[in-house]
Amino acid sequence: MPDQLFDSLSDDVTVRPLPASEVRRRGDRRRRTRHAALGVAGLAAAIAVAVPITLGNGSADRSVAPSTNTPSAAVTTIPAGFPLTAGMPRRDGVSNQPLTAGPLTSEEEKACGQVVWSAQRPIPTVGGATVTYRDGSEGGQSRSLALYADEEQAGRALRAIDLALSTCGTDQAAGTSFEQVTTPTATGSAEVWVVRWIDDKGHPTGEGMISSATRVGNALLLHSETFGSAGDDSVVQYEAGRIAHSTTPVIASMCVFSANGCATTQDSTTPTTPASDVLGPTGYDRLRIGMSYADALATGEVGDRSDGAANAALAGRPDAGLCLSKKDGLMAIFLGAGMHTPEGIRIGSSTAELQAAYPGLKPYGPDSKLGRGGIFRADAGKGLWYEIDVEQTKQVSTVILRQDHQTCFE
Amino acid sequence: MDSSEFDEFYTASYARVVTQVYAMVGNRDEAEECVQEAYVRAWSHRRKLDADLHPEAWVRTTAYRLAVSRWRRVARGRRPSDRALAAPVIAPAPSEAHVALIAALRRLPEAQRRAIVLHHLADLPVVDVARETGVPEGTVKARLSRGRAALAALLGDAPDSPVSPSHPEARHA
User: What CATH number does the domain containing B13 carry?
Assistant: First the structure.
């Protein structure tokens, strides 16, 4: 075979790349879109927000709020009494035997025809357990707790899942349709993805599988369930909420795998409810655009890193990103679900409401027109302004309170 | 990966990845559209694209899957196949030898074609081809062996080499 043909092929292929800055701009717009208030994302966020204060089903017999105890080495065995089966049926639907956990061996999670996680790849586990419930037909539930050598390894395992999911096309393929929701949480990160089976004529069969992956410390919890009426979006949201509820006691107990361990009582300093719903005109609650990095942290309102075009998030509001750096301080705040500007604009507001709230609204992005969407600018005063994305559906999808200089998006 | 690192990565790898995906899917315009989209996704996931996760392999895999998804859409929509195989509109015509190479690659089974491109065009060792395609190394070696034999026959430089039974017409290419 003439290898020189391969060697010279690159020289013969003319490419027309977009400027790198345009690729980044499009990527940033994609990230912002992921910030928009997706129903399932909100449910997934609720998993973690509820963790410090909720223990459900009576399955766990101790309170497990995060504490500031001395960090300890990674826990690589599952403590006795860990409520791995909490929220699952008590007995298997086929054998009628009590559900029992076995060791992690060949467990794997699939989506869009590929393995997105397994006990061996891409990051090998060092311990864990799995439990399966069969409902007597072809459906059921499976739940695996995977333990890694340290938090960094577990974080990489979750990032690998997200990366694998993000390579899936959003169209129907291989007899399935696929949707992914990525949600940063207060305790780590959660992923929720939905696969709906499609028949050979391209219609939903009514069956699907919903899966979630949640990391706390060096542990990763994976839960998958089959469900019916999968063609109905409201059913998908209901099922996502049900998984969030059933796994809450497990996730709460996973604090034993975090560096801070578990406290025996609830930490009263942990914010459990957001301080306010109003973003603007100069900041959010005690946060002010332009304040230093140290001052922002001192407010106690800076939470875990967001996955969107931001590098932090409001405490208790993981979908409300912050653009924050040590060098430039607080540069921008994203409007989260349930929040609104002082003028009443929120995610989902109409263009008519937007124009009424901000008569001086101006196009900011190229080719932006209210009738067909784009990016707009509304002054907030004192040199600050709202950057507002409007979709073709004439609804607001993103609002950012910002100053001119920021380093998080284009 | 900050913006300057991304720009450097994008500039250095773009043409290479387009060529590789072109060789996998057989349509230059389709390949470039999918590669462009893959880089947009790469930037939007930049915090997760650390060195351990092989960003160029990630972009190539994502672009390839996007292209495969498009094929399936085309098939479902019963688009005329010649639309999916349309010649480039603006790019200058490649050399006859390269046209023959791409045409020969298109006649290989998909798995063999991908293995051949990753190994011979992307210069990946067998172990990396196995990782990128998610199959054991032995499977990659078998695909390479069969693919090479078929390709040699298709390109006419080894007329006595066996051709895959699934492509009996290949000898006449």
Answer: 1.10.1740
Instruction: Locate A71 and state its tokens.
Output: 């960090």
Q: For residue A393, is pLDDT > 70?
A: no
* Residue A254 near residue A216 (C-beta atoms within 8 A): yes
Phi, psi of A400 (to 5 degrees): -125, 120
- Distance from the Cα of A92 to chain B's closest Cα (Å) equals 33
Which segment of A307-321, A323-337, B92-106 scores lowest on mean pLDDT? Answer: A307-321
Record the pTM: 0.41
Residues of A in contact with B42 (CB under 8 A): 27
Same domain, B100 and B82: no
Q: Which of B100, B116, B81, B114 is nearest to B172 (CA)?
A: B100
Name the nearest CA neighbour of A240 among A55, A46, A49.
Answer: A46
Q: In which domain, by residue range, is B5 found?
A: 1-87
Domain match, B102 and B126 both: yes
Same domain, B146 and B165: yes
Closest CA of chain B from A292, distance in Å? 22
CATH dotted code for A50-263: 3.40.1000
Give CA–CA dist A252/A52, Å, rounded: 7
> What is the pLDDT at residue A392?
66
Report pLDDT for A304: 61
Of A13, A30, A159, the CB nearest to B18: A13
Question: Are A20 and B101 within 8 A, CB to CB?
Answer: no
pLDDT in tens, A362-384: 988 766 777 777 788 999 999 99
* pLDDT tier for residue A318 given thresholds of 50, 70 and 90: low
Closest residue to B92, CB basis, from A14, A27, A162: A14
Q: Does A68 touch chain B (CB under 8 A)?
A: no
Q: Which residues of A touch B24 (CB under 8 A)?
A: none
Interchain contact, A10 vs B15, CB within 8 Å: yes
Between A278 and A393, the higher pLDDT residue: A278
On whether any CB of chain B is under 8 Å from the CB of A22, the answer is: no
Q: How many other C-beta atoms lie within 10 A of the C-beta of residue B119? A: 21
The SS3 call for residue B144 is helix
| Residue A221 main-chain phi, psi, to 5 deg | -105, 125
Structural tokens at position A211 = 């899966």
A39-62 pLDDT, tens digit each: 223 323 222 222 222 222 222 222
Q: What integer pLDDT is reported at residue B4 of this predicted model?
A: 86
A102 and chain B: CB distance < 8 Å anywhere? Answer: no
